[in-house]
Amino acid sequence: METTERIVESYCRYIKGWFTISNIRCSGQYEIDLLAVDASSDAGVKRYHIESGVSISGAYSKLTANEFSLEMLRDRDKQAKQRRTIGYFERKFNSKGVISELEKYGFKEGNYKKVIVTWGWTTEAEEAATNKGIILWDFRDILKKIAETCSGRKTYFANDTLRTIQLFLRSYVFETTSSVIQLGKREQEHGVTTILFECEQAAAAFTRNTDSAETIRRMRDERHQQIC
């Protein structure tokens, strides 16, 4: 199971509270990424067949509605682009081997929803997915929801994936807070230094116009008190 798939399963299981089964092998060299069941609704059980295709490559990060063909999928130079199409996932959703395996778990046509997890999508892909009854999840939104949940809890997550994200968040928050504090201190020190410099400049100018050492000391003391 890839890291992104682990994160998606952790999101479904620990954040949404769904039952999950992952990496189900099917005939035809297919594998179902994730099956999820939501039994919390009074309206009945909700089932989800979830496939993940997350890429952060600048050229192929978004899901598209571009043409899909097995011939182009076999072409190494075009393979990455083909894996970012709605058609690529449709091929898996509609595979006889996948459908046959789904039925063993009570997933039958019409009683479950198909979900694609991706790193964004084009407008055309969203329209195509809607027309085909496919739900799109943005992987970035999943990460944000996990982060919101982890940051608001002091609970120890036994799940390795969530625990890693939780530790990263705490480390990030600590480093950010420390940086802000240090920046504030530097700004404060800079402000004090500036005032002291102005004080010395004013005293020097006054010295040129008076011979009263006592008056100069008194002025400096007053300014230093204002600073403190």
Describe this structure in words.
The two termini are 61 Å apart. A hairpin with a 3-residue loop joins β1 (19-26) and β2 (30-38). By secondary structure, the protein is of the alpha/beta class. It has two domains: 3-152, Trna Endonuclease, Chain: A, domain 1, CATH 3.40.1350.10; 179-227. The radius of gyration is 31 Å and the shape is globular. It has nine helices and five strands; from the N terminus they run αβββααααβαβααα. Strands 1-2-3-4-5 form a five-stranded mixed sheet, with helices on both faces. The chain has helices at residues 3-15, 70-74, 76-82, 86-93, 96-104, 123-131, 139-151, 160-209, 213-227, and strands at residues 19-26, 30-38, 46-52, 112-118, 134-138.
Summarize this entry quickly.
This protein folds into two domains: 3-152, Trna Endonuclease, Chain: A, domain 1; 179-227. The chain is built from nine helices and five strands, in the order αβββααααβαβααα. It has helices at 3-15, 70-74, 76-82, 86-93, 96-104, 123-131, 139-151, 160-209, 213-227, and strands at 19-26, 30-38, 46-52, 112-118, 134-138.
